[in-house]
Design a protein that fits this description.
It is a single chain. This protein has 277 residues and is an alpha/beta fold. The protein has 6 helices and 12 strands. Strand 1 and strand 2 form a beta hairpin. The longest helix is centred in the middle third of the chain and has 19 residues. The protein is globular, with a radius of gyration of 17 Å. The chain starts with 14 loop residues before the first strand and ends in a 16-residue tail after the last strand.
């Protein structure tokens, strides 16, 4: 049985440009049901902002907005090619990630080479397709341990860059998981963290059909307490980038509604996992 991310049908077309993969409402791992709010009494609810690496074209803007609004978020890291011509986990990005650590954000692994799950094989192996690295664009078959190492490679590099470990979370590229990948991640200490259907930013979608104003309106109307929100730190294919137009407006609009924000360290589904094995 495959498990793919769930996003309500009126929010997305059949294919995401970044993931290049079909979406299905069968995915139970990506969405996380609205959890009981961990917000203080002054808050009407809590939203969990998360960002996956991408082209990194919006990385500094995202950091600036989060700082301005005093928001702590959760970042999921893969070693992706950036608009600077380097990769997001190269030493050239160490100052950026060190600054985010100092600000108190949380961090999870997004697989080192942005590895897409394809299927669980009958021989017990996991078929994947890395987007980057020496095997980028090629199908590969991994054991559970090899899949675990793909998750841990991010942790190792993050410690080299910042001196800090990741939090014990992972997120599958494209949102695609299976019982075997979820079990492999759990066995090596990482719990999968998806997002709520209303929490899909739509930043991977073509901006001519899904303009920023439309995406912002839907998010403000549909997000509820406990929802995990996902956006990327830059998408190559979107002509009208999502973050410059929407991020500050989204946070401001949610704050006006009485929402507070927290990292996945505080989310009820993940808060019990405080340390890396």
């Amino acid at each position: 049985m495959t498990m793919k991310r769930l996003i309500s049908a009126d929010h997305v077309p059949a294919m995401l440009l970044c993931a290049s993969a079909m979406l299905s409402p069968a995915h139970a791992a990506a969405p996380v049901a609205a959890a009981a709010s961990s917000a203080p009494a002054a808050c009407k609810g809590t939203i969990y902002m998360t960002f996956d690496t991408g082209s990194q074209s919006q990385a500094h803007l995202i950091a600036d907005v989060l700082n301005k609004r005093h928001i702590k978020a959760t970042f999921f890291l893969a070693n992706e090619k950036t608009t600077r011509g380097d990769y997001s986990l190269d030493p050239s990005w160490a100052p950026y990630w060190k600054a985010r650590v100092a600000e108190g954000h949380a961090f999870g692994t997004h697989t080192f080479d942005h590895v897409y799950w394809k299927k669980d094989l009958a021989n017990g192996l996991i078929q994947v397709k890395p987007q980057f690295g020496k095997d980028g664009g090629k199908l590969a078959s991994l054991t559970d341990q090899q899949f675990c190492e793909e998750l841990r490679r991010v942790d190792t590099r993050f410690q080299e860059l910042t001196g800090h470990k990741l939090d014990p979370f992972w997120r599958a590229p494209g949102g695609y998981t299976s019982p075997r990948t979820l079990a492999a991640g759990s066995a090596c200490g990482y719990q999968h963290a998806g997002w709520a259907p209303a929490g899909y930013s739509g930043d991977e979608l073509p901006s001519d059909k899904y303009p920023n104003a439309m995406l912002l309106k839907k998010a403000l109307a549909n997000l509820r307490s406990g929802d995990i929100f996902i956006a990327h730190m830059g998408i190559w294919s979107r002509k009208e980038p999502w973050a410059p137009a929407n991020l500050d407006a989204l946070i401001s609009g949610l704050q006006d509604k009485g929402f507070c924000f927290a990292t996945l360290r505080e989310h009820p589904a993940y808060a019990q996992k405080k340390g890396q094995p």
